[in-house]
Amino acid sequence: VELCKGASGLDKVVLRDRGSSAEVYLYGGHVTSWKNEHGEELLFVSSKAIFKPPKAIRGGIPICFPQFSNHGPLEPHGFARNRFWSIDIDPPPFPTQSSSKAFIDLILKPSEEDLKIWPHSFEFRLRVTLGPGGDLMLTSRIRNTNTDGKVFTFTFAYHTYFSVSDISEVRVEGLETLDYLDNLQNKERFTEQGDAITFESEVDKIYLRTPTKIAILDHEKKRTFVIRKDGLPDAVVWNPWDKKAKAMADFGDDEHKHMLCVEAAAVEKSITLKPGEEWRGRQELSTVPSSYCSGQ
Ligand code: TA6
């Protein structure tokens, strides 16, 4: 584990374990790289990403807290991804201690400014772990530390950008037949069809009550990403496609072809914490070789 300077001189932590690596910026508590033992980058970060506050880094795994998207009065996706986190040198013990030594604990607490826009005290502890098999685990622990007795509610997402060879040859398995809210149709509720999801145009859907495990199959690379999640019942699937990609200054014109967001999230039902209560949300990312051929 090493602390060094990343893009724009921002501090970042590098985790290494048996050839795999991961990088987390203190800015945003933002994972921007996850490489397998062959040095292949598994996350997408736009070549036009702006590593400069207050803009969030375009790609990697933005942390959406205390609000997902525009589901509330705050700026889209809340403010955690736009703040400087600190290294948490003395975190309370994690019951499920991973055997890996390659992990970092970060902590975010609200500033005076933050309390003006969201008047709640909290401690948000994030542990990023690079597992022995090269899997990447993010565990969030959010505690209500209000001293005024107030509860607070929030929505949350790990806004993960996966790197894919060609979006038109990607399938997502695990979300078939589920209900979803379509952000492109006024968040109206629909039911997904019965087979794996493929991509031919812009998609922005919040799948509800999704399974613990979701698979993203990359045909060309013969590789499947597996998301295992806990405490995060929903999953957001987003690809901006060409028009929206061109409209974003920090997104390359054709980069939508090489990324897909599948985001472990808690959106439909916001989370309520009483003072002293703690919520946990975990996602574990891994890859397995896949012999997926279309139609299988
Ligand atoms: O997660 C999907 C989404 O909510 C889309 O609606 C789109 O806005 C995307 O997030 C990116 O949001 P950002 O604020 O990072 O540009």
Automatic annotation (TrEMBL):
Catalytic residues (positions): H159, E263
Gene3D superfamilies: 2.70.98.10
Keywords on record: Isomerase
The keyword Acyltransferase appears for this protein: no
Pfam families, per database record: Aldose_epim
Recorded superkingdom: Eukaryota
E.C. designation(s): 5.1.3.15
Gene Ontology molecular function terms on file: carbohydrate binding; glucose-6-phosphate 1-epimerase activity
Reactions performed catalytically: alpha-D-glucose 6-phosphate = beta-D-glucose 6-phosphate
InterPro entries in UniProt: Aldose_1/G6P_1-epimerase (IPR008183), G6P_1-epimerase (IPR025532), Gal_mutarotase_sf_dom (IPR011013), GH-type_carb-bd (IPR014718)
GO CC terms of this entry: cytoplasm
Gene Ontology biological-process entries: carbohydrate metabolic process
Record-stated family: Belongs to the glucose-6-phosphate 1-epimerase family.
Name of the molecule in the record: glucose-6-phosphate 1-epimerase
